[in-house]
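Let's sit down with a protein and look at its sequence and fold side by side. Please make up or recall a protein chain and show it to me in full. Label the sequence line and the structure token line clearly, so we can match residues to local backbone shapes. Go ahead whenever you are ready, and we will take it from there.
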Amino acid sequence: MNFQRVVFCCCADYHRIPADLIKGLYSQAEFAGIKIELCNDLCYEAVRNPEFLKQLSDENTAIAACYRRSIKALFASVDISAPMVLDLRSDKINQHLLTLGINASEKKSELLIPEYAYKWKAWYPLIDRERCSGCGKCIDYCLFGVYSRIGRRVVVAQPSECKTNCPACARVCPQKAIIFPKHNEAPIDGAEIEPVNPPKLEVQPGQNADDLYTKLAKRRQNQKKDALLK
């Protein structure tokens, strides 16, 4: 698929994305005629200007940022689906060029990545909805009132109240569902992680194991739907 626009996150204040990779991919995309935009910090915008993220949820737009799991959770935090994500923290530039459908060139970019120093460093948790069980341990553990519930669903209600550089709640989460995109340790930083293992069921004589797991999967899906409706 050929994308018409690529939006780069510069990860202001923390710079978790290598500047050389941003420059290299920027120049290649620019040379291919793709519209390029720089965003100071997607985490900051998600809290201070969520409408900006909604404008990026477009099938013709790609986000060049950090781990896919982080960006997916970031967009989910404002209740929209993430567009295509180019993972600048783990994938190589050749993989990104292939995704964008462009050929490598010798062009070098003169891009100067601007420096920003926000009064509020956008350090706060995101929730991986595919992993969160809604147990509420994060709510009980956090001393700053960052989390709350909407029905049975745990949400990050006060992101700006999070203590900067503290990832403690992520360490106590039994499902490893809490992400701090600006952290430097996996899987807290949003790096890919093994899927949640479904509970094992004891198969009774005469029962089919596949039937039991099918019923369990359907029940879990219905529970997720109920939580979203509340």
